[in-house]
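hey can u run this one w/ fe (ii) ion bound, need the structure tokens asap thx
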Amino acid sequence: MIFVPIDRVCKNMVLARDIKIYSYDLKNIDLLKKGLKLSLKSIDRLKHIGYSGIYVYEDNEKTKTLEKPKQILNTELREKAIDNIEKLFQHIDNNDKVNDILLENVNNVSNKIVDNIVHNKRYLVNIIDLKLYDDYTYHHSLSVSVLATSIGISLKLSKKSLYELSLCGILHDIGKIQIPHYIIAKPSKLTFEEFDIIKEHPPKGSNYLIKNRLVTENIYNGVMSHHEKYDGTGYPYKLKGDQIPLFGRIIAIADVYDALTSDRPYRKSVLPSEAIEYIMGNNGIMFDPKIVKAFLMKIAPYPVNECVKLSDGNVGIVTKVYSENPIRPVVKLLNNTNKIYDLYNNLNLMNVTIVEII
Ligand SMILES: [Fe+2]
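ok here u go:
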């Protein structure tokens, strides 16, 4: 099978995986079955829901020209991770006590995430690769875990700390299970009262985990403090600067970046470059400058082989990403000239930006 970005999915491609489509209230689920030949209507529906891509069978003629993007996690591990995270979250939703086996499974999978990323550490995180899954909660947990682990590697944390950090990324929003679902999925702006209720999810989550003796102190601290802000205006304790535990400062960036680049019930996603600019714009305000720097070394908003539109109207394929400035990669134009645009080194191109992933 091959992953195809949604804008390159064509009629008659054959789905290689079942796709669950939830309604906003999570009460109804439709299933597009593996083996389904896609119609224009089903492709439109997937686009409308916000899918960034899908898996289709590789032997289809139309997929032959598409190159497979490099994946920081292999497909099997991602599927296993999502499956285990989903089981754990659903179990906690239905029961007061956590099933040790489910937590152990999530712990094992989070350790494997670290091993995978450490093994592939020369690759930047391909953000398109993280946008595959439809269900926001589980997909977001996995993305935050991957991004946080990558930041941790950039900060040269020990393997033991990376294992803890990866699990912290998966569990950071576990307290949201105890928040009424109508507030989490509300498509319009929250009232002050509703926002106050949302603010309870870090203490609810971390206290739940510690009460059930499920996690280490570092993970507890990370879950509790992932909405604190560097300037002291966050919640729940308005901690400032280095008062905020390290895991909280790392998860904060991973969480905001993934949330901004995902479609939510109340707004559309923004471009990766806009999310990065938001994070850079909040350097030293919301976020710790040391962590922002580590994050920028690890993120690839425009991965190699991605097709992009430029502000001068040209369209091209990304051929190289600079880890020191991932927003300005090398782009090979898709026109008769086949020109190479080095957006980082060529000063004549300073006014040219990437405006769209296509
Ligand atoms: Fe949160």
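The chain is about 40% helix and 10% strand. anyway lmk if its weird
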